[in-house]
Specification:
Number of domains: 1
Strand order of the largest sheet: 1-6-7-5-4-3-2
CATH topology: Phosphorylase Kinase, domain 1
Strand content: 25-35%
Number of strands: 7
Distance between the termini: 32 Å
Radius of gyration: 17 Å
Largest sheet: 7 strands, mixed
Helix content: 10-25%
Order of helices and strands: EEEEEHEEH
Structural class: alpha+beta
Shape: globular
Oligomer: single chain
CATH superfamily: Phosphorylase Kinase, domain 1
Length: about 160
């Protein structure tokens, strides 16, 4: 049975990784972790001047909403592609922020092949970065057996 853990305090930092092969593909993956809080996570730059957050090089924007955008990124140590949801906390009221943090706590404990994994949470004063598994192809009818064709069209 899973136990719930609160989001860590400002001084906690966790950079554990899965052992090679835990994902069945022989690759080392970032492990779903608590969170890290960084002062200048978004402002950091790699040697080749590409922007990065923590150990992730930002590549391109793949989604955008009112309070967040999603960037395709590469985990620098392993080269694995991830999706990073970048949430502007300054645009959220206190109730929305609490709901978001509750959602993050829930995402940390979920482990199912049909749910995108949350690998890491990086938090700054104004921004929350959710480092997640990258689902490059999105959904297809083959991913949703049992749905009628008309139902799939509405998804």
């Amino acid at each position: 049975m899973s136990t719930r853990t609160p989001l860590p305090t400002v001084n906690e930092r966790d950079t554990e990784q899965h052992a090679p092969g835990e994902d069945g593909r022989g690759e080392a993956l970032p492990r779903p972790v608590r969170s890290a809080r960084c002062k200048n996570a978004a402002a950091a730059v790699t040697a080749d001047d590409a922007p990065h957050v923590g150990n992730y090089r930002l590549l391109k924007t793949i989604g955008k909403g009112n309070f967040a955008k999603v960037k395709l990124a590469r985990h620098i140590p392993t080269g694995r592609e991830v999706a990073i949801k970048i949430i502007d906390k300054t645009q959220l009221n206190p109730t929305s922020l609490q709901k978001l943090l509750r959602e993050v706590r829930i995402m940390k404990i979920l482990n199912h092949p049909n749910i995108v994994k949350l690998f890491e949470v990086i938090e700054t004063e104004k921004t929350l970065y959710l480092v997640m598994e990258y689902a490059s192809g999105g959904l297809s009818p083959a991913d949703t057996p049992g749905l009628e064709p008309n139902t799939w069209i509405h998804l």
